[in-house]
Amino acid sequence: MAKRIDAESTLKRLRNRYRLVVMNDDTYEEVVTFKLSRLSVYITLSTIFVLLVGLTVALITFTNLKYYLPGYGSQSQRKELIFYKTKIDSLEKSMLYKDQYLENLKKVLSGDVKTNVLDTATLKIPEVERSTQ
């Protein structure tokens, strides 16, 4: 029962109306008057905070400001990384072809294969596991 009374008093305090008056210090004339409640002030400040955070994130994400963040890297570094990644993939594939060729050549020279003609269409390249990062 005490919790319900406490929740009701908290809700009443949030909904109580207050008046904020801005006055001229020399003439004591009211310049602006606001009627506020704690709830409206809380909602207004929360909304402003969420909007500012959203605008800041959007500004950093969708503009070139992200390149000034530590750890993100520059655009030229990203292009270079993509270039080297494709180069490594092609070298790896070439190395697998050569390994398969040498293995078949050893079989032919040792006499394990019935024919000594290599068929390049039957070369099997094992799938290499790639880690995605």
TrEMBL record:
The chain crosses the membrane at residues 39-62. It comes from the Bacteria. Keywords: Membrane, Transmembrane, Transmembrane helix. This is Peptidase M23.
